Amino acid sequence: MNKEVAVTPIFVQKSQFPIINFFNYSLFMKLPYAEPYRIKMVEEIRQSTKEERELWLKNADYNLFNLKSSQVYIDLLTDSGTGAMSDKQWAALMTGDESYAGSRSFEDLHNTVKNITGYQYLLPTHQGRAAENVLFSVLVKEGDVVPGNSHFDTTKGHIEFRKAHAIDCTIDEAFDVENLFPFKGNIDLEKLENVYKTYPKEKIPFCLITITCNSSGGQPVSLENMKAVKELSDRYGIPIYFDSARFAENA
Ligand SMILES: Cc1ncc(COP(=O)(O)O)c(C=O)c1O
């Protein structure tokens, strides 16, 4: 995404008129004429009929987790690992250093993470849910509450598995599909402060900001909102953690 696109939404958010916002936004957007890459491989997927889908859904007791992947034409359950890899990513599999300790590939990862976040320490995990398990085993205790913006399902699972409770503080605009507000992943400061006032500090290990806010449709969170959440949380002495699964898209 180019710089203008990344900067524009902050400008847009200041106005309260969604339609004008959308118009302004399109004025500033510079989308490429066509995708600047070639796709080298295709994978066949089967198209199903409406009758088939109705039957499969009924047999699955309307629980999408009970479907077979071959029954799903467009899978919107996750975007993790479902995208095509670039030639450089495939090549990196061959040039990667798999040494058990002191690996050069780890060094590359470490440097990249340090450059982006400024953090010195990094604990690699194979998937986001594994990271949640490691982190929450230290931070979340029975009876705790964890406020945030539409916690991802695995996140909520790891919180509730520990007999704690995830409290959704996403702004109401997120649930109105016709609303064009550009930052529907934002945290509602009033809802968040209400949690901070209702529960003792010891019961709130952290506030979780998920960027993008995937469980409400991959919605972005504005920098302005993140700063406000940090400021509010600082006043109550509650740390902020980022689930930055899609931080680049959020930019
Ligand atoms: C916001 C968020 N958190 C956590 C996860 C879990 O990550 P993983 O699927 O790598 O376990 C995802 C996956 O899409 C996610 O979008």
Low-confidence sequence ranges: 1-27
Write down how many β-strands occur, each being a DSSP E stretch of 2 or more residues: 4
Bound molecules: pyridoxal-5'-phosphate
| CATH T-level fold name of the domain at 128-250 | Aspartate Aminotransferase, domain 2
CATH architecture of the domain at 128-250: 3-Layer(aba) Sandwich
Question: Mean of the pLDDT scores?
Answer: 86
Question: Tell me about the biggest sheet?
Answer: 2 strands, parallel
How many helical stretches?
10
Helicity, as a percent range: 40-55%
CATH superfamily of the domain at 128-250: Type I PLP-dependent aspartate aminotransferase-like (Major domain)
Strand order of the largest sheet: 1-2
Rg to the nearest angstrom?
21 Å
User: What are the secondary-structure elements, in order, as H or E?
Assistant: HHHHHHEHEHEHEH
CATH class membership of the domain at 128-250: Alpha Beta
Strand content: 5-15%
Structural category is mainly alpha
- How far do the termini sit from each other? 8 Å
Shape: globular
What key phrases describe this protein's structure?
single chain; 251 residues; mainly alpha; Aspartate Aminotransferase, domain 2; two-stranded parallel sheet; two-stranded parallel ribbon; 4 strands; 41% helix; globular; disordered N terminus; binds pyridoxal-5'-phosphate
List the helices and strands and how they pair.
Elements (H helix, E strand, L loop, with lengths): L2 H11 L4 H11 L21 H10 L27 H9 L8 H14 L10 H12 L5 E4 L4 H9 L3 E4 L20 H10 L8 E4 L12 H14 L3 E4 L3 H4 L1
Helix pairs in contact: 1-2, 6-7, 8-9
Bound molecules: pyridoxal-5'-phosphate (PLP).
